[in-house]
Amino acid sequence: MRYTHGVVHTGGSAAGILDDWLPSDASVQYATDGVAIAAAPRVHRASNSPHAASNGSICCWVIGDVYGADSSDGTRPGQYEPRPTGVDPAQYCLSRYEREGIDFVGELNGNFTLLLYDAERDRLSLCTDRLGTVPVYWTRPDDETLVFSTNVQALPFHPAVDTAFSPAYLHEYLAFRRTFGVTTPFEKIEKLEPGTITTLSLAEGDLTTDQYWRPRYCPRDESFEWFVDEFTRRFRTVVEEWTRDGRDYGVLLSGGSDSRLVLAGLEDATAFHMNDWMNREARIAERVALTADAEFELLERGPQYRINALERNRWAGSFNGWFTQPYTTGFEDELTDRIDGLLSGLYADSLFDGFGIPSPTTSLGPLGSVTLPVERSVETVDDYIDLLLERAHDDLETPTDLRTVLEENIYREGDRIVHHGVTYDSLEEVVYYGDLYPLSNDDDMRFHTALRQTLPYRTPFLDDRLVDLSLSMPIRYRLRRNLVNRAVERLSPELVAIPHASTGVSLSRSFPAAYAGEHAMECWQKYVSPRSPPEPYLTDGPWLDDAELLRSFGFATDILEAKGGLADALPGPDADAIRELYRTHCRGEDRVGELYTLLTVLTMPATACVLEDDSTMRHDHTPGPFERCLQPTVIDLD
Questions:
Q1: Which residues form the Asparagine synthetase domain (predicted)?
Q2: pLDDT digits (tens, 9 = 90+) for 486-541
């Protein structure tokens, strides 16, 4: 995978510091006495480099993509201009900066981080998109130096960076499988805030941050039909702007509705479906592809693919999600050999469905429980913290109290709410959009990032025009209607007739029918169905059963055998406690959440760098620390 690293040093050669930090084959793209930017090694042959442009005195880099610019404020129609075809994103941004100054960033639409170095003004600006989809991690080891990277794994390896695990923020990651706001589990290492322009003056060393956007929920008093019309129109426009004649596109197709809508929006595409065998989910996806006259390609994983992700994805760890979640990293060749660009349905459920909206649950006795399609009231910060604690895995031995950590980091500041260093206008935005803002804290962002680094990739639902529509959509429509299904019906009546793999009913059925079908399907599979998968860890859904995978294979104990010393050094459960947790899981309890999160931390290269008190590893650069950690850890996963 390709990452971008940078050093700003006002007291000498930034390039020299960069050379001391990165492997010898890192590609330095730009270097002056004060600023140095580099791309990381181990680049997949089809991965995207940061876009770069310069006019001599101003240099610009775009990590990700800029789609265009919109002069509206999100509540009214504006003058939207797509980036002209053939114009490089960095050149586009450089031209706008020359004409308008740094304020142009507030109008950009895209998933990006933008770096602007203005030599005449002697300043470097780091600009994040609205949702912070391309994270930048940074630290200031001293008053003269700023070190940053798009990969949090890289920063502890910098010779000047002295960091340690924060017990409080590591506790949050272990409990929630994510970090919050700008925090990371490493002391003195943070992320840039979403929707901001952070500027460093190289002359004075001053760092300032200006926020140009934050989510503001403002529901429109419109009918559901109005939202269906507007959503369908905007969705089609987004897909049409991105796709080009003469190029081959692919869709990551599930058995559900979000990716089905993406396929319906394309005239011709290859449908890639990831699964562990041709189960019900795969057969539904194949039926959708054949009905759409699209070629169907099964990307077959199997248990070893899942297990090998511990090694394959160790450099991708961001303390959000598990080692499993850059799902496509073993299929780069299959994707890049077949297509020029890829689309997915990621984040449709987070923006337009009830996903993330707090709802009450009710018990059905031996049949389990169901989530009711009504909103649960969250009126105070304490209510919100209670809601978070209900979702936490918090029975591990840790030196901090989780409620105390949350109360110290989520609080009112005047009329606004501060949540781990990120400001929201009201508690309403925290509740509805806290999982998406910043988006880099969402565990599926690792999936999004892996795709972006493999080939040209886009999920239409993260286009600002659709994000704005979500912010104007009443919560009742998200909870008790289905916007995506209705859009599929508009674009492809043939596809809407095919059942959803999770509900067993077609997308054309009403919300009550789909709601009842989903819960009936769960009961059928659990209590009635005579169908038995060929292996206990296989399922009829999109993912294998990780609980059974842990019981069927000994990879957890192999990791603990190799990494037990690191576990003992973590401010959390030691190796013996983790082994007992695994034994408890094997006896029938479900401890996947705790075990997978711990295994993810233990296999991260930065964990060894921070915990092993070895000055040779951290500061000997022949070979450098990166070269050492690029060598695979030898663990028997069979």
A1: 232-493
A2: 999 999 999 999 999 999 999 999 888 888 877 677 676 666 666 678 999 999 99
- Which residues lie closer than 8 Å to 188 by C-beta, 6 or more apart? 139, 140, 161, 162, 163
Q: Residue 358 is inside which H or E element, if any?
A: none
Helices 592-603, 555-569: axis angle to 10 degrees equals 70
Q: Is 481 left (phi over 0), alpha (psi -120 to 50) or beta?
A: beta
DSSP string, 309-324: HHHHTGGG--SSS-TT
> Taking the C-alpha atoms of 395, 570, 143 and 419 in order, what is their torsion angle to the nearest 10 degrees?
-10
Helix 483-491 to helix 224-242 angle (10° resolution) is 60
Report the residue count for the chain: 638
Predicted TM-score (pTM) of this structure: 0.92
Q: Which of 159, 138, 103, 495 is nearest to 294 (CA)?
A: 495
CA 96 to chain centre: 28
Secondary structure, 3-state, 546-608: HHHHHHHCCHHHHHHHHHHHHHHHCCCCCHHHHHHHHHHHHCCCCCHHHHHHHHHHHHCHHHH
Question: Distance between CA atoms of 377 and 417, rounded to whole angstroms?
Answer: 17
Q: Burial level of 223, CB count in 10 A (0-12/13-18/19+)? A: exposed
Ordered by where they begin, the domains of the chain are 4-152+189-211 (3.60.20.10), 224-354+441-528 (3.40.50.620), 546-630 (no CATH)
CB atoms within 10 A of CB 634: 7
Token pair recorded at residue 389 = 């604690």
Number of helices and strands in the chain (H, E): 25, 23
Which stretches does DSSP call E strand in 202-354?
207-211, 249-252, 270-275, 295-300, 341-343
Here the contacts of 546-554 (C-beta below 8 Å, separation 24 or greater) are 546/306, 546/324, 546/592, 546/596, 547/585, 547/590, 547/592, 549/303, 549/306, 549/307, 550/582, 550/585, 550/586, 550/592, 550/595, 551/585, 551/586, 552/303, 553/303, 553/307, 553/637
- Count Cβ atoms within 10 A of the Cβ of residue 29 and give its class: 0-12 exposed, 13-18 middle, 19 or more buried: middle
Integer Cα distance of 599 and 205 in angstroms: 39
Helix/strand/coil for 79:
coil
Three-state SS sequence of 163-206: CCECHHHHHHHHHHCCCCCCCCCECCCEECCCCEEEEEECCCCC
Residues in contact with 158: Cβ distance below 8 Å, sequence separation at least 6, in sequence order: 17, 21, 141, 147
pLDDT tens track for 216-234:
999 999 999 999 999 999 9
